[in-house]
Amino acid sequence: MLEKDFDILWIIICSGLVFFMQAGFLCLESGLTRTKNSINVAIKNITDFGIATILFYTVGYGLMYGNSIEGWYGADHFLPEFSLSNPKLPVFFLFQLMFCGTAATIVSGAVAERMKFGAYILITAMISSIIYPFFGHWVWGRSLADLSIKTGWLAKLGFVDFAGSTVVHSVGGWVGLSAMMIIGNRMGKFDTDGKVNQITGNNLPIAMLGTLILWFGWIGFNGGSTLAFSKSIPGILANTMLAASGGMAAALIYGWLRLSYAEATLPLNGALAGLVSITASCHAVRSEEALFIGFVSGILMFETRKLLERFQLDDAVGAIPVHLTGGIWGTLAVGLFANLETLHSNLTRWGQIQVQALGIIACGLIAFSLSYLLLSLINRFYPLRVSESAEKQGLNFTEHRATTELYDLFSEMEYQKQTGDLSKNVSIEPFTEVGQIAERYNLVLEKIRTNIKEKEQLTHELELNLGVIQNDLNTAKKIQASILNQEDRLIGDLEITIRYLPLSEVGGDFFDIAELKPGLQRIFIADATGHGVQAALITMAIKTIYESLKRGHYSVHELLKYLNSEYYHSFKNLNQFFTCTIIDIDSNRNLIRYASAGHPPQFLIRDQVITRLEKTGRIIGVKPSTEYTSHEFEFLPGNAICLFTDGLTEQWNADQLEFGEMKLEEYFQQKEVISFREDIDKILELQKNFLEGMPLQDDITVIGVSRKRLGA
């Protein structure tokens, strides 16, 4: 090994190819993550190799290739001094360094978009200085004096991993899995019901370019592991290409059948899984076996991805299905398919399978267990995950203060959202896709500003018009108040109390109290349909007609008949109606006579007994000719009448319960002595409490008429 100049030249070339794989990982991972995190991912892929180089040189190389302590770790060759005249050891170090850097960078993709940059550097340091060198010594430990002499305990047992399916890829996969479990999933990846939300990368073509770079770099990865420019290299490379193609085809076909469409990352990760799986046995299997190994790896990659989703583990780029699962399968495939004579392990087929399984378990124990323990401990004192706000904002800016055109655009849009200030356009970067978006957004802003200006103008005009309307309403209110005499009064032995509560400035209730002759009073109460200005105008029509009829020699039912006829012929086109009650109180004869046109029952109260004065005909304005009847009742001193519109009883609270006539009746039944000045206000207070803050829904008019007791 490394005995000839061509050997050294070949390993230098392969080292360059493996180093170029860092560019592949950079493109792959930054393309599969979102724009707001792509710079962070790229920086990690550059930084981790530099960190790995320093730590592998100072610590890792000695632990991996120093003089072995019982096959467990190397004890010297820390900070090695390389001779310019003897290229054998420098080129060996160079090639092994590339593998160490690859193992470290695998973790980057698994924990992308939510791990602190400082935390990732700690993981890189842990892999480069501890985990990778220790396990690497078990499998690849050699005497630097004679590279053909194996010193690691697993290697001595016959464990074979030609180019690092387990030593490189499974190590990176196990550490990535432990880190994923500790820091948790990306925000929004899984719903509370377990549904998986796919997070699409920002640049899949770049990710696919990264895959091709890795595929190309694998020529050095596997071809250089011969550590010599030998005749076996073409066969190794052929097997590498076949396995990669098998993995790509299997992932695409199998995933297509499972998903019913060709998902974009299937050929990408399928090819990488095939490359990882053949890495352990590419020197010792036949071509058809290499193709089969790759084919199986593509299927296993897909099923591992589904398994992670089932357990709600978020692998941002598919590192675990590709590197961990691919590495495990590839290592087992050595025992299943490899030519035992080529392996030189002196084991039977079953014995080789057993030792390969032992190596897989040993890798899991040191890589997963040790990393999980150390990262959990670190996480207690130094949280590995970024804050929720930082994750939302993106790690490009929060970790590195690096911005992109898209981030800058979103920042300006977020400022407009927070402040509500849409007066300025967002900045436009010309001749870019983001610039085109910004330009379209500015056109939308311009339209919004135009609409706002138009609405402000309309609002101003509306306010002016509302001012005019309000002045008109105030005038109408004064006019209606002058027409409706709301003062309490005493006429003969009748005490009359009035409460009038319009819903707005003007209302649709009307009443009139007139003395036809001494001892004979006529009270008229009406309620037009609706409320507000329209209903108030109807009351003016009612007043006009009623004033012309009320002093005629008409009985109450005749008055209603003529009132209906006049109203119908004058206003039938309005399609507006009203209810009313007319009651004549004859104190000389101790009688009342009333007629009602569809009005709610009024209350005649005599010795705590309520007599309802029901309607005696149809509401006014429905038909031109309507007959009405009237009824007489005795009305003695001490008796009372409560007249009201339906606004007193037909009010509804938040539970859709009506105040109703029963509450009014129950109130009067409990009163031995009626005093309307107090009782009407108490009834209105009772109604207010019933409504529990709900607004009134109609005008209210209440007229209480009490006849004084003799001697009072």
Compact overview of the structure:
The protein has 712 residues and is an alpha+beta fold.
Structure explained in plain terms:
It comes from Leptospira ryugenii. GO terms for molecular function: ammonium channel activity. It is a multi-pass membrane protein. Belongs to the ammonia transporter channel (TC 1.A.11.2) family. Its main location: membrane. With 712 residues, the protein is of the alpha+beta class. The chain has three domains: 394 residues, Orthogonal Bundle (Ammonium transporter fold); 79 residues; 222 residues, Phosphatase 2c, domain 1, CATH 3.60.40. Helix content is 57%, strand content 12%. The chain is built from 21 helices and 15 strands. It has a six-stranded antiparallel sheet, covered by helices on one side. A hairpin with a 2-residue loop joins strand 7 and strand 8. Helix 9 runs parallel beside helix 11 and helix 11 runs antiparallel to helix 13. The longest helix is centred in the middle third of the chain and has 51 residues. The chain is rod-shaped, with a radius of gyration of 47 Å. The termini are far apart. The mean pLDDT is 91.
